[in-house]
Amino acid sequence: MSIPRLLTMLLFVLLMAPVGTAMAQQDDGSGEKLLEQLADASPASTEEALQAIAASGHERARAWLEAYGNNRLSRVKDTGEIVIVLNNRGRDWTVADAVTGENLGEMSRRDLDRIAINNAVRRQLAGVLAMLDLYAEDPEVREEAARDLMGKVDEAVLDPLIGRLDEEPVAAVRNRLEQAVAIYRVEQEGSIEAVDVLAGSLHPRARAALNSAVASENPALKAAAQKALLSVEQKLKMNRAAETLYFGLSLGSVLVLAAIGLAITFGVMGVINMAHGELIMLGAYTTWGMQQLLPGQPGLALILSIPAGFLVAALAGIAIERSVIQFLKGRPLETLLATFGVSLILQQLVRTVISPLNRTVVTPEWMSGSLVINDALSLTLNRMYVLGFALLVFAGLMLIMRRTRLGLEVRAVTQNRAMARSMGIKATRVDIMTFALGSGVAGLAGVALSQLTNVGPNLGQNYIIDSFMVVVFGGVGNLWGTLVAGLTLGTINQLLEPWAGAVLAKIIVLVFIILFIQKRPRGLFPQKGRAAEG
Amino acid sequence: MWLARPLQERSTQLFLGILFLALIAVTALHLALPEGHPLHVSAYTVTLLGKYLCYALLAVAVDLVSGYLGILSLGHGAFFALGGYAMGMYLMRQIGDRGTYGDPVLPDFMVFLNWQELPWYWYGFDMAWFAFAMVLLVPGALALVFGWLAFRSRVTGVYLSIITQALTFALMLAFFRNEMGFGGNNGLTDFREILGFNLRSDATRLGLFIATGIALAIGYVVCRGIVTSKLGRVSVACRDAEARTRFLGYRVERVQLFVFVVSAMLAGVAGALYVPQVGIINPSEFSPIFSIEIVVWVALGGRATLYGAVIGAILVNYAKTVFTGVMPDAWLFALGALFVLVTVFLPQGIAGLLRKRRKTTDDGSGPSDAPTTAEATA
């Protein structure tokens, strides 16, 4: 036990000492005594007993209190020993010694006498449990506990809380505690200084306290609360805007991922691949398959899926190119129909071979959860990873197109096929490589999407129209255009959503693109020069 | 008179002859033979055939734009569905107070959604003439606005295909919304009667079948009239060399707009005839896959022939009926394979095969309307 913790414990004990005679018994710190006291307590003295346990610093104090709250703290009728019920199914219950935590095996439930708890006590218990964590060594646990206390402070914990406040070394935790106390002060005492403390807080409970203060009769308090509320609202608005932007960029990054492969096959090669969505689907199913192969290691499976998804989709792309597209060179409309046929076949294949139902792809631990910025703003981690991944893929593609031999050849063939061939470039090989690259990127998109949406046979269909919109909006044959268009459309969609609803937002975006195409038929960033007239 | 010209063509006469013979044969077999007879055509089959004829008319409309104008519309399902919704609204109003909730004015789904009064765009649909006019006007107006915007800024080729697809997709999403007032997900259904005839009686079904056949005949003659007129020649010129036609002084966008609007109206009529026979219209008719399917019917039959579109539509839908009955899982495989095989191996479609056989028997059948591969690439 660290010195500061010991000190705080001591102080707490001192603070609690005058509360009641029961406190005196705890000095020996004996677990049995504490529990006895709880078990024997009358409804009026239960709280004292709880506080005593909290203040004892006993290593199993939390286990007792939680068991008590869950109705699992029982007393053996014959011996009077206090036990924790581990499993209360059936006639014989598994129990453990409360003090030592030792498993005592099964015991008939008739021999046990539950230590009763009522709702009033349960409420106190929540506060006590939160207080318990305020003494944890980990500042994050302390902060979490302090946040839980917001709005739950009552007379019983107020004094120890203030005591705790004075010696809390970490500013963030102290800040929380101050706010928790201030909520109590504003609501119960109508304190104006406390209102000022709350002005900086984004916690909904703090806002509720301010709102109640606005309704009060004290004009000074009312004015102060109104002012504080205004500043809170301002901050909230900023946070909401940041959140919308984040979701917009996240949706945009998904669109970019889905569309960027298309930008290569459609934009650079002029091939309309309606099966692009199904290549995305293949990538997502590869992730699922990988996780089936490596059960219990979702993270490793996900990382391995990145190359695997690329390969699977790229091979499928090569197969499509060799079997269908090469025969339809220069006939974009026929290519569109044929690849649509391929997409139907792939979809049905997945439905028949795997299942028509959605598959679950597990999100690894390091990708779940969210990054909490403040009470009003928390960013989900998986979306952040996908955003980063999209940017990485984009940068990688840019490098390939600008800095490698393949990129050079692709650009040459795009600009003037005949000329490129007479310079010794194998155009057919370039076609295959380009198509494989575009398809592989679709596979990567699938791997990323498996973390955000359901993996099912219709996964690709949901993205194909959006992807085309992004490519067309950005300007065909321009990777930068795809990036800008994807992020823009994602953000616009999210901005419209709270105002118009998800479906209507989508419709508005579609109509917007249709109108935009009228104005600029070649997209945001049209290709210039001879290639444009293709 | 441009409409009379096609009637003098041998191919049109042949087409109309076969169509009317089929109509008469089905009617006779349905009415004259007793129900147990092996050659008896049941009311179910009559309705099924009527549905195929609706699809055939839709395919003719698509062939008019994709075959003769070079515009691959992936959104014709939208015009079809709009025509269908106009008809559906009329049929809904005809239910009157016989609905489940018995409201004399409001359709059932509006009562269910607690709507207090009829939205303004439902006014007038209790009158048959108004509804039938809307069947033509609504798809026509959408095609006019959309086409005007698109053709004026010279959006053609693949771009146009993609934005027509976006159009029908957006409409599908919109019609799925309950707030739109078109029944949302469930669409419009539970129809009772049309023009006073009970929709559930066999006689009405036969009547609708014959009406569809006649509509197909008229639609065919109208399209044939357009493509054999000077306008049709110009539109084929637009298809093969848009820039050159423009340089010759033709207002390409006007030709495109006219043909596009006519085609949309025909699609609307097809939808309007489809709804009373099928008994329901819902937003799935707007789905992009349906619109693409239509293009494949046309491609299978043979583009720029009109009769090929009819053959393709009937064949594919017959196959669909058979497949979905026998082994539903295989249908999408078959359809997908059809897409691939037709485009790779049968670019001229079935009509192309027929023509090739005719050419080998008597050479020199004159210039054909169908685009050759070389022209299409230009």
Automatic annotation (TrEMBL), chain A:
Annotated TM spans: 245-272, 300-320, 332-350, 384-401, 468-492, 498-517
Gene Ontology process terms (BP): amino acid transport
Highest taxon, organism lineage: Bacteria
Main location: membrane
Membrane topology: Multi-pass membrane protein
Residues in the signal sequence: 1-24
Record protein name field: Amino acid/amide ABC transporter membrane protein 1, HAAT family
Subcellular location: Cell inner membrane
Record key words, sorted: Amino-acid transport, Cell membrane, Membrane, Signal, Transmembrane, Transmembrane helix, Transport
Stored Gene3D superfamilies: Leucine-rich Repeat Variant (1.25.10.10)
Single GO cellular component term: plasma membrane
GO molecular function: transmembrane transporter activity
Organism: Marinobacter daqiaonensis
Similarity field: Belongs to the binding-protein-dependent transport system permease family. LivHM subfamily.
Automatic annotation (TrEMBL), chain B:
TM region positions: 12-33, 39-62, 69-92, 127-151, 158-176, 206-223, 255-274, 294-318, 330-350
MF GO annotations: branched-chain amino acid transmembrane transporter activity
Chief location of this protein within or outside the cell: membrane
CDD domains: TM_PBP1_LivM_like
Highest taxon in the source lineage: Bacteria
Keyword Transmembrane set for record: yes
Gene Ontology CC: plasma membrane
InterPro entries: ABC_transp_permease (IPR001851), ABC_transptr_urea_perm_UrtC (IPR017778), LivM-like (IPR043428)
Keywords tagged on the record: Cell membrane, Membrane, Transmembrane, Transmembrane helix
Family matches, as Pfam families: BPD_transp_2
Coiled coil location: none
Source organism (scientific name): Marinobacter daqiaonensis
Name of the protein in question: Amino acid/amide ABC transporter membrane protein 2, HAAT family
Membrane topology summary: Multi-pass membrane protein
Location in or out of the cell: Cell inner membrane
Region of interest (Disordered), residue spans: 358-378
